Amino acid sequence: MVSFQKIKKNKISMIIFFRKHKNTMYFRNGIFRFLILVLLFSGFSCSKRQSLKIQWGESSIVILDFRNLSDSLALQLYNFPVFSSSKFEETYFILPGEKEKIIVLPCEYPSLIHVFIGNNGYSCCVIPKDTLKITVSFTDSSKIQAISFEGNTKSICDYYLEKQQELGYHDLRIPLNRVSGDPDDILKNTDSLLNTELSFIKNFPGKNQLPEWFVKTEISQITYLCNSSKYSREAYITKRLKKTFNPNPDYYRSVNTLKIDNQDAIYSYWYYYFLKSHLVHRKLKLEGLSTKDWMDLTTKTALEQASLNLSNDVRDIFSYDYLYSYLKWTKNLDDFDSIFSAGKSNFANQEYLTILTKYRNELTDSLVQKRNDEVSTSSAKSLKANDPIPYFYLQDIEGIYFTPENFKDKIVYINFWATWCKSCIESIPHKNNLIEKYKDNKEVVFLNICISSDNETWKKILKEKPMAGTNLFANENWSTIIGQNFGIDALPAYFLIKNGKIVKPFCDSPLNIEDDFQLIME
Which of 3, 238, 321, 512 has its CA 20 to 30 A from that of 305? Predict the structure, then answer.
């Protein structure tokens, strides 16, 4: 077997070579494709007794094998990393006839990933140095007929798939957000979902086939996500919507019984998400602070709270991630050096200090300045909550022009789509069902803005598959402007607007947006 060290050394050049030569005769004849798959599978496979120690700088491979794909579709993959340094989120367009997609993502410890194939979402798990193969079979009409998994996390992926089929969702956040903003409704819904999820894994027929570390992690994921949801719903209602929130004494009872220093939750993304709210954000008044003051205060508080409340690996990971995030943000290396020096005593494992020191030594004042200039330029183009909706001047199918001024006093749900986007077309019935529910509400407007498409094809699709709401078309020039101003790099994309200002950029699809509607209309 080829050693992983040798594979790792050549991984980057291998991927570059793959992209460079994918259209040559070697690739078309299958010779190169065969060699790269042999290399990937041999180099990234691992034994069943996979080490669960954090493996710095390692990766995982996800190979999607498409069977009988006759139409284009969007493919999205993103992970839920304990370390923000390992964040991965990419969108791809798969063309008819494409057999597979090979994705390399950072993976230094077992991690949950979500894979969206068209409109269908799936939860999976990856581990370092492993290859997860996902085989997707399609019907003649390009609907997903079957999905299966190969790799050392097969039993975990099968568990997720069976849970999705049984409970009706792939992501627990979906049903958590389906209730109104009433505290009693949130409490009842959250506790019910918590019990349902825990009952499922407790009674799962294949539980004995699941690794012990995964069962502990999954229980932690469920428990801390449900309790984090109570925090986040309160914050959203009070801070974003500026409304009162008066929960009864039972609302936070389950939160108060949670184990704060939980070594069984070391690989749980939602555990650390909960700790950030519980130990840091809820203890501070952060409104009105500058970005620097906000970062200084949250990082120092996180290090103090970690020292007081956490131990061993949990304290190391929690402290590391705050310091790493500060280093990636800071505009002044002296500020980081000061906080880093004060926080070194938090670490039981010196390896974390070694990694942070390495990242720090790679930076100079000039590199930090250049990075911040690039971030400033990028941030200027990124829409945030309360930003005014970017201007447009677009025609409907009758040739009538519309601008944001036409909807200044309305709640507006914008659907950006394209005629070549299969996921966009498939979601038309869901959009129409949503619009039907709100047809008598004069305060809500549904905009369907077609971009990067041919005008005649747009008209033809609207005739064949009528889409309710106001349909606008953006020509080539306006498509470019809209794409830049709204920051759109994948379709479909949805925005929620109220009174001319952004409430939620890149918000949920028509299937899951109603909870937000209810909240902003209350």
Answer: 238
> What would the pLDDT profile of 460-490 be if each residue is shown by its tens digit?
999 999 999 999 999 877 887 888 889 887 7
Encoding tokens for residue 375?
Answer: 């971030």
Dump pLDDT digits (tens) for 164-200: 999 998 999 888 877 778 899 999 999 999 999 999 9
Instruction: Determine contact, residues 280/273, Cβ cutoff 8 Å.
Output: no
Number of domains the chain contains = 3
On the CB side of 170, CA atoms within 13 Å amount to: 16
The alpha carbon of 119 is separated from its chain's Cα centroid by a whole number of angstroms, namely 15
Determine which helix (DSSP H) or strand (DSSP E) holds 414, and give its type and residue range.
strand 411-417
* 151 Rama sector, left if φ>0, alpha if ψ -120 to 50, beta otherwise: left
Same domain, 160 and 184: no
Residue 265, CA distances (Å) to 218, 221, 222, 268 in order: 9, 8, 11, 5
Same domain, 98 and 162: yes
Chain-centroid distance, C-alpha 474: 28
d(CA 448, CA 457): 15
What is the secondary structure of 135-152 as a DSSP string?
A: EEEE-TTS-EEEEEEEST
What span, in angstroms and rounded, lies between the C-alpha atoms of 411 and 135? 41
Strands 493-498 and 470-473: unpaired
**β-strand pairing of 73-79 with 444-450:** unpaired
At 434, which CATH number?
3.40.30.10
Alpha-carbon dihedral angle through residues 14, 17, 23, 29, given to the nearest 10 degrees: -50
Total Cβ atoms within 10 A of residue 124:
24
Sequence-distant (≥ 6) Cβ neighbours of residue 247 within 8 angstroms: 183, 184, 187, 234
Give CA–CA dist 444/467, Å, rounded.
Answer: 16
Task: Please list the alpha-helical segments (H only) found in 414-510.
Answer: 422-426, 428-437, 455-464, 476-486
Residue 430 lies in a domain: yes
Contact 129, 4 (CB under 8 A): yes
Between β-strands 131-138 and 59-67, what pairing exists: parallel, antiparallel or unpaired? parallel
Which domain covers residue 79, as residue numbers? Answer: 45-171
